[in-house]
Amino acid sequence: MVTPTSSPSAHHIAQQVRGRFVDALDGLIVELMGHIQTQLATLAQGGAAAGSLATMQLAMEAGDIFHRERQAWVAAVRAGWRDALGRGRNADPSAPSQLATLELVDDEVVERKIVASRLGNAVLDASGTEFNNLRLRMQSLERRSDLSGHDVLRPETFALELLKAWANQGLTPPMWALVHGVIQEAMIQRLADAYRDANGFLVDQGVMAEIDMKALVRRTDGGVSAAGGMGQPVPPRRQAEPGWGRAPDQDDARASSWGGRADSVLPTTGAHDIGSASEFPDVRPSALARAAQETRMLTGVTPMTRVRQRAQGVLGQLKRLLTDRVADFDPGAAGPRMSQSPTLARALAEVVTPFAVTELMDVEADGAVATLPMPNLEIAVDRVRQRASELKTKTDKPSEKAVIEIVALMFQAILAEERIPAAIRVWFARLQIPVLRLALAEPDFFASVQHPARQLIDRMGACALGFDASTVAGNRLEREIKRIVQVIEQYPETGRRVYQLVLDEFKRFLGRSLTEGGSAQHAATLAQQVEQKEALAIQYTIELRRMLASVPVPDDVREFLFRIWSEVLAMAAVRRGPQAEETLRYKQAAADLLWAVSPKTDRAERSRVVQQLSGLLQALRGGMNSLAMAEHDQDGHIKLINDAVMQAFVSRGDGLSATKLAELSHSLAGLEDVVTDDPEGDVLLDPGMIELMFGVEGDVLEVIATGGSQPSDGMLQWARELELGAWFTLDYQGDVGQVQYVWKSQRGQLHMFSAGSTRNYLVQTRRLASYLQAGLLVPVEDEALTIRATREALTRLNADPERLLH
Questions:
Q1: pLDDT tens-digit series, residues 46-64
Q2: Is 17 exposed, middle or buried (0-12, 13-18, 19+ CB in 10 A)?
Q3: Which helix (H) or strand (E) is 741 found in, with range?
Q4: Contacts of 742 by beta carbon, 8 Å cutoff, 6+ apart
Q5: Global pTM?
Q6: What is the DSSP string of 312-329?
Q7: 415-428 burial string, b = 16+ CB within 10 Å, else e?
Q8: Which residues contact 462 (CB under 8 A, 6 or more apart)?
């Protein structure tokens, strides 16, 4: 056996092992470049693994960036890999890592290390005993307790250089997720061979020809540990965040987080697969396991879910109060009550409305209604209280007395909600008796937040919270609420069915009325066109890639068609129609361009190109003008196309046949017939594009395209669950104001908030979620109206329990 590391020969052998290992993986870097390009091209063309249009679009973007930066990426990985050889050779394996010393580390750095550790563990699982044998031999050779955490012999060291170079070239974590699998597969094969070669070299040098099994057990300060864990407690698998290590789906196709749920792409490598123990030397596995479990529990609960849970908690308190204090209350009753006190039933049947709204209006001295009639809510509150007292005398059942009292207290609380205009609250007061009938007949009203009567009152209240009391009288919302109340009063025997009916009608009313008239309607129409245009542009690009997969087209022209002309076609289709004359002209221009840049060996064909080129270039400029493209940018594209035409004149390849050209022209003319809708994709909003292309001025529609924080899955789910009509406080560029959620696009990708007649805000789903997460968009009220009213009723009953039954 060779001498310790103090011997020049031992030190030289260790250097040779690492140098040979680095050289072996240097060749893998170029191979990985090829694997990445192939994988991205396959996904961009709609391969089986692509899944959705959002993934295909992301693969296109990643392929374009990687094609430009591939040489820089290879150079960066090689440089980092060579630097790692120097960094890790003399590192102290006992030195604590950044995580162990609790230093502040950038989230992206941490997430990169986690993904690198996952890659490393996949390699170790596949390499069997080769890595452990190599590690034992290096320990014996160098007289060290273990390899350092940054040693090049650790597979995660190489993986980390790949990830760092990826990020430095402008490629995002979701883009990495697209190629993670092929990189892992290539690393497994090459590193396993490299470990075998390194072990063979050490054996030839006389280093530990036979593995001493006693060396597999090593004593540590805390006792004995297996070599597989290298004396360190190995933390359990960390639940990754969205981004690294999984293919993106609808909401994170363009995310930039350095985390990722890896379960859809990464293989399961065991319970202890986060990485080398040296990365987390002082963390107990049980603590990490508990933290991971808590994280998983939290990420599975959306903010809206927590609101519902709190609401259900309030109803649970009400149920306990009734169970404890009301003798004949049946907490298990789920269906309608079959028996009701006859006297109470007759009293309720006699009541059509508790009062007329005109009874509550302030009047002038001569008896005429005031010029600006406003309800006197003190009268309404007195009537609610009076009616409850009268009805409680009509029954001897404690449960019925309790229901009457609770409903009355709830409506008193609703009438006291000053943020709702009085003109709206007075109509809510009219619902006391209809809701009381329902609550007496259906105990579920007090048990479920999803009861249609609760949902109806909550939606109407949420919509009315932000209205100016001086302007709400007589407006569309008041008229609709009045209509709904009158419908409910006309059908007292239909139970929950009438509430469900008018709830559905109210939702449809909100969908069509919140943006009717004024700037909001114009902005909503525009936003819908933006979504349609973006969706078509993505779909056209995908279909063009498929169509041209087997057609020889110069790279510059191919890029022009994919990036520019797909936008032109989408814009024309949205503004004019897919079969409009202008749209068809642009489609034909694409076919003419493909023919013009294909090889022209025949003089007659070259003459024909020269004759048609002027008209073709004019059509191309017309399309670029429709995108409001700057003239110097147009000139750049025209120059590239001219160069491609000149190159076609001297090329000796086969040109496009007449049959193939006719096939392409036919496919282009019916392009929208083959594309499919993908409601899960993202729409990226460019404020300048909207203003230039549609002529919208900034004071009419403000596009929120910046700000916020990287949203979690829970926040994205919350953004999708927002209900039209709700009011929020928006903090945008330091300007804080109240806005109403007035519009959602057909595909659910765009949302609009209105600050009145002067300003509307358009935001994409992911940006909306980021504003919610950062606290820049905050609900005016995070508790439903009926739940808040129930909570206040409970407070009064707890303070004065006797009023429940007396």
A1: 655 555 667 777 888 888 8
A2: buried
A3: strand 735-744
A4: 514, 515, 520, 524, 724, 725, 752, 753, 754, 760
A5: 0.50
A6: HHHHHHHHHHHHHH-TT-
A7: bebeebbbbbbbbb
A8: 723, 725, 726, 727, 781, 784, 785
